TrEMBL record:
Belongs to the KAE1 / TsaD family. Its main location: cytoplasm. Transmembrane segments: none annotated. Gene3D superfamilies: 3.30.420.40. Required for the formation of a threonylcarbamoyl group on adenosine at position 37 (t(6)A37) in tRNAs that read codons beginning with adenine. Is involved in the transfer of the threonylcarbamoyl moiety of threonylcarbamoyl-AMP (TC-AMP) to the N6 group of A37, together with TsaE and TsaB. TsaD likely plays a direct catalytic role in this reaction. It comes from the Bacteria. This is tRNA N6-adenosine threonylcarbamoyltransferase. Keywords: Acyltransferase, Cytoplasm, Iron, Metal-binding, Transferase, tRNA processing. Its EC number is 2.3.1.234. It comes from Microtetraspora fusca. Fe cation binds at H110, H114, D302.
Length: 339
């Protein structure tokens, strides 16, 4: 079946079309330029932009795939978590398409969709897999027996999300928002061992993370040098900060693989686009005999294909469609795959 996926949890209006595990179209309209000057996403601006972008983005996805509305067999939409007003636009549109086309509706979890999307690139996800989900609002280690029906949380951040730490440190370094890609780029000309930044919860025996101490340490380091009139070695700070984040993420992910005797690790979410995270994860997986799966960067950050991919998975698993009265749930827990 051909599934239309609709993603509006943050600033991207993402529309995806998939058939089974085959990606047919992945079209994105972003309102990021409108938010950049505020240094963060402004919810009201995002909602309005989704409203304006929805119909044209659906139409351009159909055109790209060479499909018509009548070819769509089901509609999947992000029902949460995310910005309430932004989610509402997507959920309302999805209900309208579902009703208008006479096809089933699937309300799905945005975070589970970040995990499911990898199947479009690397095929069926081994059951079980360990998933490291690292994005702008979340950082979690998950045991995934079956992404369509069972996601277990092993641990998560106790303060900032990994992406949030990237964005805040970028701001301290005077890099544009969202800062993750800028730190990634800047770090390539710096040294990850130049400055010894703290690694929170490194050896605490849990699968939780903490990034706020690291973020504060970087800010203090930069402030002290600035006050002394020194030039900030931006590339070295970026690389050393990035190394601290990816060291902890990969270390705990492999500890989880060992603890649960799972041989497949998936990394998903916007921070999974990070080049150093990908490289270090590969190195440590190779050493541990674990197979690593990371989708290409364009599928890591928010998009509609990931939502369609999870919808497709729910259909294959024979899960009942959602009713037309499903709410948008801004704090939908990761363990609730669909609503
Ligand atoms: P969530 O999925 O938790 O609701 P979100 O949807 O806003 O949050 P994503 O789009 O999945 O988040 O990810 C965006 C985050 O990923 C931002 O914090 C951004 O800085 C970060 N990011 C994107 N590319 C990179 C990169 N190359 N290196 C590090 N971080 C990155
Ligand atoms: Mg985003
Ligand atoms: Fe996301």
């Amino acid at each position: 079946p051909i599934v239309l996926g609709i993603e509006t949890s943050c600033d991207e209006t993402g529309i995806g079309l998939v058939r089974g595990h085959t990606l047919l179209a992945n079209t994105i309209a972003s309102s990021m330029e409108e938010h950049a000057r505020f240094g963060g996403v402004v919810p009201e601006v995002a909602s309005r932009a989704h409203l304006e972008a929805m119909a044209p983005t659906v139409e351009s996805a159909l055109a790209k795939a060479g499909l018509r509305f009548s070819d769509i067999d089901a509609v999947a939409v992000t029902a949460g978590p995310g910005l309430a007003g932004a989610l509402l636009v997507g959920v309302a549109a999805a209900k309208a398409y579902s009703l208008g086309l006479g096809v089933p509706l699937y309300g799905v979890n945005h975070l589970a969709a970040h995990v499911a999307v990898d199947q479009l690139e690397h095929g069926p996800l081994p059951k079980p897999s360990i998933a490291l989900l690292v994005s702008g609002g979340h950082s979690s280690l998950l045991l995934v027996p079956d992404v369509a029906q069972d996601v277990i949380s092993l641990g998560s951040t106790v303060d900032d999300a990994a992406g949030e730490a990237f964005d805040k440190v970028a701001r301290v370094l005077g890099l544009p928002f969202p800062g993750g890609p800028h730190i990634d780029r800047s770090a390539t000309s710096g040294s990850g061992t130049a400055i010894a930044f703290p690694r929170g919860k490194y050896d605490d025996g849990t699968f939780d993370f903490s990034f706020s101490g690291l973020k504060t340490a970087v800010a203090r380091w930069v402030e002290a040098r600035t006050a002394a009139g020194e030039t900030i070695p931006v590339a070295d700070v970026a690389a050393s900060f990035q190394e601290a984040v990816v060291d902890v993420l990969t270390r705990k992910a492999l500890q989880a693989c060992r603890r649960y005797d799972v041989k497949d690790l998936l990394i998903g979410g916007g921070v999974a686009a990070n080049s150093r995270l990908r490289a270090l994860a590969q190195e440590r997986c190779d050493a541990a005999g674990v197979r690593l799966r990371v989708p290409r960067p364009g599928l890591c950050t928010d998009n509609g294909a990931m939502v369609a991919a999870l919808g497709s998975e729910l259909i294959a698993a024979g899960i009942q469609p959602s009713t037309l009265d499903i709410p948008a749930d801004s704090s939908l827990p990761i363990t609730t795959v669909n609503v």
